[in-house]
Specification:
Strand content: under 5%
Mean pLDDT: 84
Number of helices: 12
Number of strands: 0
Pfam families: HEAT_MROH2B_C
Shape: globular
Low-confidence stretches: 205-236
Largest sheet: none
Order of helices and strands: HHHHHHHHHHHH
Distance between the termini: 63 Å
Radius of gyration: 20 Å
Structural class: mainly alpha
Organism: Macaca mulatta (Rhesus macaque)
Domain Maestro/Maestro-like HEAT-repeats: 8-194
Protein name: HEAT repeat-containing protein 8
Helix content: 55-70%
């Protein structure tokens, strides 16, 4: 048993070394590291340790995004490695998560994947967000574009746990991406801003656990000022303020 634990610790260490190279600018490095990662995962044995689980969960977003970069060779390795991770972890991801088909005009597909990730690994949701924001800075435009699409579906899924700081971080990233040298990235960044705004304006009036939505424009019972909101709504008031300033900045 001690030997098994020692082996698994070595394998996890190898995986930690390989993961950062998934976003390497050289195709052969990306392809080799993703392929080797999958082969190391095949060596892992039960019982799953916490270190193993955390490591493989942190692999989800890099694999999903790299699969979308448009490079057939690299994407193929991503699919194979994701399948190996899923088998070991007994994940039940949507079928389209293993597809190399581009996400363009497939917002429902991306939303389904994000919803599954957040529901299954809520403790790792902010790691998923940080990783996708990091990939949105990648030198390859295809990765920046799919990262923006991913962020657009991920943020609404995190509505119940989102913090003001992280929402501001998303806002700043999307603002920068609206001035991206690649036109398609600019377009998606603008669309995602609108999508997040629409989603949050609607959901920020929904207290956690309530089954109804209160729209200030159509319901005379509520005032949109924070002081007059019931206690359950007051804790969400920063979202209203943050989104208000965001909306104003978009109009400028």
């Amino acid at each position: 048993r001690d030997r098994k634990l020692m082996d698994s610790a070595v394998y996890v260490e190898m995986l930690q070394i390989l993961l950062p190279h998934f976003s390497d600018s050289r195709e052969d490095v990306r392809s080799s590291c993703i392929n080797l990662y999958g082969k190391v995962v095949q060596k892992l044995r039960a019982p799953r340790t916490q270190a193993m689980e955390e490591q493989l969960v942190s692999t989800l977003v890099p694999l999903l995004l790299t699969m979308q970069e448009g490079n057939a060779k690299v994407s193929q390795k991503c699919v194979k490695t994701l399948l190996r991770c899923s088998y070991f972890m007994a994940w039940e991801l949507p079928k389209r998560a293993y597809s190399r088909k581009p996400w363009d005009n497939q917002q429902q597909t991306v939303a389904k994947i994000c919803k599954c990730l957040v529901n299954t690994h809520q403790d790792s949701a902010f790691i998923f967000l940080s990783q996708s924001l990091e990939y949105a800075k990648n030198s390859r435009a295809s990765l920046r574009k799919c990262s923006v699409m991913f962020i657009g579906s991920l943020v609404p899924c995190m509505e119940s746990i989102m913090t003001e700081d992280r929402l501001n971080e998303v806002k700043a990233a999307l603002e920068n991406l609206r001035h991206d040298p690649e036109a398609s990235v600019c377009i998606y960044a603008a669309q995602v801003q609108d999508h997040i705004l629409a989603s949050c304006w609607q959901n920020s009036w929904l207290p956690h656990g309530d089954s109804w939505v209160c729209y200030p424009a159509t319901t005379h019972h509520w005032s949109s000022s924070c002081e007059n909101l019931p206690t359950s709504h007051q804790r969400r008031s920063w979202i209203m303020q943050a989104l208000g300033s965001w909306k104003m900045s978009l109009k400028q």
